[in-house]
Amino acid sequence: MQSGHNLSKSLAVVAALLFSSSSVFAQSAPAPTLDPVAQLLAQPAVRVGEVAVAPDALRGYYQSGGARLWTGGSGVLDTAFELASELDALDRDGLAPADYTQFLPLGWQDAADPEELAQVEIGLSSALVKAARDLYGGRTTPSISDPDI
To answer: Has this prediction a pTM greater than 0.90?
Structure first.
């Protein structure tokens, strides 16, 4: 079993591979779709959970037909619960879990209709991208938090 820190680094690598190369996916024209995730991502900003997100890092992946990672036709997948558990444990890496779980809509565990599931999908993906960026690069620039550095 991986240690918490190694698992956090693994999350960062997975997010980087899936979402940071969205320009690769964006090069091909997205196929017309009625998928609620793609519809939400077509907007310049999306309110998910307690925050509004600009889903630029997610658009290329999902609008090019990228598979859903956290939700499916039957509801919220086990992978969603696993990621939520890792987000809740980010304090072991010096991060505040609430900074990431705020992307999750209330009652996300019981989401069932397509619009709710789209919110969960985007919320978890946004939380993963933010967590991966913060784990990789930190939350602050040292010289800003302490000018004597």
So the answer is: no
